[in-house]
Design brief:
Elements: H1 14-19, H2 49-60, H3 64-78
Helix pairs in contact: 2-3
Length: about 80
């Protein structure tokens, strides 16, 4: 699972995100800490998970909607919500 840290300038593990299969990737906010850019240093909110998904999509070179769909399916499977 990846948090707002992936949006930080010092994040250096882009290749790691590319290695994670889409059916295993998760995105989180780690609220109230580690808000993604441009909110770094402020209180993190659950709605900021979209910024994490957008960054994952950018690094994997796929549409953000694909990451959103995959992470939704993955979390449902993880917690038995399907």
């Amino acid at each position: 699972s990846f948090s707002g840290v992936v949006t930080f300038k010092k994040w250096a593990d882009d290749a790691l995100i590319r290695l994670i299969p889409d059916d295993r990737v998760l995105a989180e906010t780690d609220s109230p800490y580690l808000a993604p850019l441009p909110y770094r240093g402020k209180r993190n909110e659950p709605g900021n998970v979209a910024l994490v998904a957008k960054k994952i999509a950018e690094l994997k070179e796929i549409p953000a909607s694909s990451v959103e769909q995959a992470t939704t399916e993955n979390i449902a499977r993880l917690f038995g919500l399907k």
